[in-house]
Amino acid sequence: MSRRRIIPGFGLSLGFTLAYLGVIILIPLAALFLKAGKLGWSAWVKLLTTPQVVAAAKLSFGASLAAAFVSAVLGLLVAWVLVRYRFPGRRLFDAMVDLPFALPTAVAGITLTEIYSTHGWIGQYLARSAAWLNEHWQPGGRTGDLLAEWAKKGACYSPLGVFIALFFIGLPFVVRTLQPVMEDLPKDVEEASAMLGANRWTVFRRVIFPAILPALITGFTLAFARAVGEYGSVIFISGNLPLKTEILPLLIVNQLEQFKYEAAAVIAASMLIVSFALLFLINLLQRRLNWRAR
Amino acid sequence: MSHRPVTTESFGVKCLLVGATLTVLVLFLFLPLCAVFNEALRKGTEVFFASLREPVAASAIKLTLLTAAIAVPLNALFGVAAAWLVTKFRFPGRSLLVALIDLPFAVSPVVAGLVWMLIFGSKGWLPPGDLADLLAPLAKVVLAAAETPGFGWLSGLGDWLDRPKIVFDLPGIVIATVFVTFPFVARELIPLMETQGTDEEEAAVTLGARGWQVFRRVTLPNIKWGLLYGVLLCNARAMGEFGAVSVVSGHIRGKTNTLPLHVEVLYNEYQYSAAFACASLLALLALVTLLLKDVIERFGGHAGSRGH
């Protein structure tokens, strides 16, 4: 730093920021990894390969991926319509997208459970159509079991419920990341491709989609990262059936309630490591995309 | 044939896409919102208000407000300091610092509660007994000071220092909330102050303004809408936080249950109407937050950053 700083407050803001960041975030996270490290490598592996943890990890990451993917697809649709078209009530619907950010997760949790139970607004139709399908189509096998389960319980207390809750949480991430990028898309490129004879679908596929893909991936990543850690909106609708609908954050809470601090720390630390690794990979992919687009 | 511009779709496709979007939004976002109020008022307004007047519910509301009243100003202060540091100065490690500020968004709320249990819990690094030993000298001083007339208000603090309790009590709830809502204000301010640059502050300094004056008279008017926006989002999350608080609160009825935790307790006890009555209060908070957000975006000229 050769130039003298003119603006005051460097020392004060640096000191306060670092102290606060250290006390609130860094020391606690270090404590987590230290605690997890206390259990040796073999104990760590043994804990992570118990059927309960494996089942929960599969559900947590699987449902999060599925929910983030569907959020990306439907989020693209919602963002497109909100940015491109004018229709009555657009502002209201636009504001509504933020609801999952603002609604406390516990409220979302009990409400979704209510709606998707067999007597709920959506659950009753879901249960009825599942029963009808099972009766007339008789798919048998795993599909048949799944339909029978939905017919009996609606979407509640099943992986489908976990997926629905995570989709509810994830949708706004995709919409809100896509919107500003779509608003800034230059119209002249689209016009040029239309002049050259491309139809609308080709223009979307070859011109618009590549331009918004990085933002779409960012939205997907944000939705996924949030979904993996989500707790409040999931635990009510999932019903927490052992080996079936338990998510990883719930296992952490369970271990803690049995005063197994190390085990809780190991699950939490592993979850963080996997999440960070995935985020890092997606980031890498995105950089390549950005680089190619240039 | 109408002559539609080449950069838009045919009327039929438009209708189809708008219809699909409205279906998604109504089915997945609007219905849950309606369901909260519908369930809350199912047994009539009398039951609704009675469940809010319950002493346990009232104490949960109080605790929620108190927690937000401590956590939000702390994070607002941090947000301003961090944004000032990151946008007005260039120094090594700056981009790492920005990345670290976002870190809590990638951490599960449950883990945000767990870390405090690992530090202050009975089997943590600094269990209540050790913490009491550590704070004993300070407690003695404060308790002695409380004896002197006029300083009686210190006795509460002295008692706490004498037998400090962090997890399963208010301090734990507050620090867990602070962890979860940590990035909100900083995240709003950093991009905003980045685009504003440092010219105005430099001019103020050249004209003889001192540190606080520069901030109060030049920077603060420029960032006030962004700051308000961040505080609004931070507050909504602080009052609604469930996972992190659930881990550290210990669920002591009427004492360490915040409103979201109280909703959970009522729901698990099959008191659905009461649970949804309290939930509707939180949903109302969400609606007010969205409304104010819209107002700030419209009148503050603040585009609002996206996400979280």
Please tell me about this protein's structure.
The complex is a heterodimer of chains A (294) and B (308). Chain A is an all-alpha fold. Chain A has helices spanning 10-38, 41-48, 51-84, 90-96, 99-102, 105-116, 123-137, 141-153, 159-183, 187-195, 200-229, 232-238, 248-257, 261-293. Chain A starts with 9 loop residues before the first helix and ends with a helix. The model of chain A has no long low-confidence stretch (mean pLDDT 91). In chain B, 75% of the residues lie in helices and 0% in strands. The longest helix of chain B has 34 residues, at 55-88. The mean pLDDT of chain B is 90.
SSE layout:
The complex is a heterodimer of chains A (294) and B (308).
Chain A: H1 10-38, H2 41-48, H3 51-84, H4 90-96, H5 99-102, H6 105-116, H7 123-137, H8 141-153, H9 159-183, H10 187-195, H11 200-229, H12 232-238, H13 248-257, H14 261-293
Helix pairs in contact in A: 1-14, 3-9, 3-11, 6-12, 7-8, 9-11, 9-12, 10-11, 11-14, 13-14
Chain B: H1 11-40, H2 44-53, H3 55-88, H4 94-102, H5 109-120, H6 128-147, H7 154-162, H8 170-181, H9 184-196, H10 199-206, H11 211-240, H12 243-249, H13 259-268, H14 272-299
Helix pairs in contact in B: 1-14, 2-14, 3-8, 3-9, 3-11, 3-13, 5-8, 5-12, 6-7, 8-11, 8-12, 9-11, 10-11, 11-14, 13-14
Listing every helix as H and every strand as E from the N terminus to the C terminus, the arrangement of chain B reads HHHHHHHHHHHHHH
User: Radius of gyration of chain A, rounded?
Assistant: 23 Å
Main sheet record of chain B: none
Strand content of chain A: under 5%
Largest sheet of chain A: none
Specify the overall morphology of chain A. Answer: globular
Name the descriptors.
heterodimer, A: 294 residues, mainly alpha, MetI-like fold, globular, B: 308 residues, 14 helices, 0% strand
